[in-house]
Write a structure and sequence with these properties.
heterodimer; A: about 525 residues; alpha+beta; six-stranded mixed sheet; 16 helices; 21 strands; about 20% strand; globular; B: about 240 residues; five-stranded antiparallel sheet; three-stranded antiparallel sheet; 7 helices
């Protein structure tokens, strides 16, 4: 038996995570927690350079983060306290449909009422021309009302991870990595090695067998998780897996960020992301416990850097005068393959895209769900895992790019080249163009997608399409039909939920203060 | 308890305290840790979250969706009256007599022991202040107990449903009890730590007191023979 055969048939017992940002520490925590839960004997080592700063991508999460943290074993209270986290109930897109004053729509995290039983979109559309008709998000669910009122998605008596409304988080990414690192090392037994990777040892078949650090230490492993950020040390540096850019579809290639302090200690904290369209991009505005994170994402082909920064400072107002901005380059796209041999790329080494729907941390979580929960037991079984992973994430990236493009493609804005170029079907992915044609006469439905578990499912498409007043004409609704009666029942139930939530839920800042002071209970 | 005012010899010179009348209108009473064994003789004990802090208060149930089943015209018909019931009309206050009162409480009125005599507080006021201070300390000990039980994940929702003869149902949510499965699954170190703290015995008494729910049902049916109920626990997963 050759050395290569032994390696190929050997059990996977040593996993090495390379890189120590959010991706690296989420990966290490998920792998180690799973090993602890199953007593699989898998050991996890994280190698982190002391010299390379982390990028700190993603201050917004998806609701999936609740499940990730619970699996890792971090309490929601420790998370909120440790990361200056705030609750997020979705996003409000201002000025995306047109640039008239006050224009905007919500993409809440709650699905439309009765989503498991019926589709309310045709019922909404049938009455949407009526005077004073509510917008789609408000008509089908109550969460937009909570966002408008500055209310939290839960109260201090609600158990951790549970909400009266669905929710995610806004967080300080630097503090998040620190919290994860402490938990990984102190509670989950992750070995933390600080050192620079000087060389990579490979077997004949190309598998990575060990990292050789600058001080000569060898870190051997059976599986390597490349979380080295834009450097992509293994997936790019060792294997040269090509990077598939998407700049022809999503034009934004720059961002400028500011950290804006609150006016006062009791200033309201917005409980959703605010994304405000600009002449050549958009501005994100998210509230943490201690500050706002505000940034301008833009296309350098359509606006200059200084002009973009000036627009951001105008948005923030006088508070921006004393603040220094941080400029970020967005090289949008992803690897052609994410898992090559015994290396799997997670985080920025796998791909990067503008943060319009906060997909960065979600993709890390989804990657680690696939890797940690289905860790190949042997090197030999890794081929199948790699093939499945590559197929799934190639699909996910394509759908994410399409969904982000949707926000631009159906705009009614014609004020700048940026919006006119985005509305040109020539810049739309084929899949999006095909579906948009279908959705003119039928609402988005689960059957419109190939995968049972899409990262963006049909409610998300409905919130954006109808939020942006997409020109759809669905089949007529018969008010006497049984489904119309079912729709009325669900809408009435949603109205009761709205009234109760508005009456009972606390102000967002008050909830965070109570969590920080008293903590949330587990039950 | 929204109408609290300072106990003032000038204003409340004729006010008397009737301990036997305490408790009317109160469905639950917060308990101190030292009251667990005593209150469990009459009432189901459980936990309910404080609306402002979310932390668990130890409470005794005294009603099933209606009036206090122990407090009647002839007094409080139980072997033990929780201190929070007895002292329900009073709060500690700064200055003056050191007490604030809720003049609307059923225990205050023209009957019972005098709170004032010749324009000055009686010794009863002093005793009430002392009892309130002890209760505050005992409630803090109950909070510590609840915190320890919650830390070991030994609390679970206790969902009750009251079913009436006409098929009407009334759910009682927001209560928590001991998770006996989790208790049985504790590791040795946790068992020893909780035992040394006295929390294990307390948990056992609280768990057993759940069966006093049947006593409340009997008291309810006796008081309302025309409106008999069945009180059931809903499964945790429901």
């Amino acid at each position: 038996m050759s050395a290569n055969q032994r390696h190929d048939d050997g059990p996977v017992t040593q996993v090495v995570v390379v890189g120590g940002g959010s991706a690296g520490w989420i990966a290490a925590c998920r792998l180690a927690a799973q090993a602890q839960r199953t007593r699989s004997g898998v050991a996890v080592t994280l190698v982190e350079s002391a010299r390379i700063p982390t990028v700190g991508v993603g201050e917004g999460t998806w609701p999936t983060m609740r499940n990730t943290l619970a699996k890792i074993g971090i309490s929601e209270t420790d998370f909120v306290r440790g990361c200056d986290a705030a609750f997020k109930q979705g996003a409000r897109f201002a000025g995306w449909t047109d640039d008239s004053p006050g224009e905007g729509y919500y993409h809440p995290l709650n699905p439309p009422a009765g989503a498991t039983e019926l589709d309310l979109a045709p019922h909404w559309l049938a009455q949407s021309d009526a005077p004073a008709a509510a917008d789609f998000a408000t008509w089908v669910d109550f969460q937009a009302t909570l966002c408008d009122a500055g209310l939290a998605p839960k109260s201090i008596t609600t158990p951790e991870w549970v909400g009266q409304a669905n929710y995610a988080y806004h967080l300080d990414a630097g503090k998040f990595a620190t919290l994860l690192r402490e938990h990984a090392v102190e509670r989950l037994g992750v070995r933390h090695v600080i050192g620079d990777v000087a060389r990579v040892e490979q077997a004949d078949g190309g598998d990575v067998t060990a990292l050789v650090l600058a001080d000569g230490e060898q870190i051997a492993g059976d599986l390597f998780v490349d979380c080295t950020g834009f450097a992509a040390l293994l997936i790019g540096g060792v294997y040269g897996v090509p990077f598939r850019r998407c700049g022809d579809v999503l034009f934004a290639d720059r961002a400028i960020a500011l950290q804006v302090p609150y006016d006062s200690e009791d200033a309201p904290i917005t409980c959703h992301t605010v994304s405000t369209a600009q002449a050549a991009g958009w501005i994100w505005d998210i509230g943490l416990w201690t500050r706002r994170g505000v940034g301008h994402v833009y296309s350098s082909a359509h606006i200059g850097d200084d002009e973009a920064e000036a627009a951001l400072r105008r948005y923030v107002g006088p508070a921006a005068d004393a603040l220094s901005a941080r400029r970020i380059t967005i090289d949008g796209g992803h690897r052609e393959r994410f898992w090559q041999n015994n290396v799997v790329a997670v985080g920025l080494s796998a791909g990067f895209i503008e943060p319009l729907e906060a997909s960065a941390l979600m993709l890390i979580e989804a990657s680690m769900d696939a890797i940690a929960d289905r860790l190949p037991r042997t090197r030999g079984a890794m081929h199948v895992a790699a093939r499945q992973f590559n197929a799934a994430f190639t699909h996910h990236w394509a759908r994410i790019i399409e969904f982000l493009k949707l926000h631009y493609a159906i705009t009614k804005r014609t004020d700048t080249d940026f919006w006119r170029d985005n509305a040109s079907p020539a810049t739309w992915p084929d899949g999006l163009a095909e579906r948009l044609e279908l959705w003119r006469t039928q609402p988005p439905a689960p059957q419109d997608f190939e995968h049972a578990r899409e990262v963006f499912s049909w409610p998300s498409y409905q919130y954006v399409l109808h939020g942006m007043r997409f020109d759809a004409r669905y089949a007529a609704i018969d008010p006497a039909a049984p489904e119309s009666a079912l729709a009325r029942r669900h809408l009435a139930r949603a109205e009761r939920a709205r009234a109760e939530a508005v009456q009972r839920l606390p102000r967002h800042r008050d909830l965070i203060r109570a969590v920080r002071e008293h903590g949330l209970q587990a039950v | 308890m929204s109408g609290l005012v300072a106990l003032d010899p000038a204003r409340h010179g004729a006010l008397r305290f009737d301990a036997a009348a305490a408790g009317r209108g109160r469905a639950i009473a917060q308990l101190g840790r030292g009251e667990i064994a005593l209150a469990a003789c009459d009432m189901p004990l459980c936990f309910a979250k404080d609306g402002g802090t979310g932390r668990f208060n130890l409470v005794a149930l005294m009603a099933l969706g209606g009036d206090n089943l122990f407090a009647g015209a002839g007094g409080f018909h139980a072997t033990y009256m929780p201190q929070a019931v007895l002292l329900g009309a009073f709060r500690l206050a700064e200055g003056g007599t050191g007490l604030a009162i809720d003049p609307a409480d059923a225990s205050l009125g023209a009957r019972g022991a005098a709170l004032m005599e010749r324009g000055a507080a009686t010794s009863l006021v002093n005793e009430l202040r002392g009892a309130l201070r002890r209760l505050v300390e005992d409630v803090a000990a109950a909070h510590a107990l609840a915190k320890a039980l919650a830390r070991h994940r030994l609390l679970r929702p206790w969902r009750l449903v009251l079913r009436r003869a006409d098929a009407r149902e009334h759910a009682i949510d927001g209560l928590y009890t001991i998770d006996e499965e989790a208790l049985a699954a504790l590791d040795e170190a946790a068992v020893v730590a909780l035992h040394r703290d006295g929390a294990l015995a307390a948990a056992a008494v609280i768990a057993a007191s759940r069966h006093q729910l049947e006593r409340l049902r009997q008291l309810h049916d006796a008081a309302h023979p025309e409106d008999r109920i069945v009180a059931d626990e809903l499964p945790v997963e429901d």
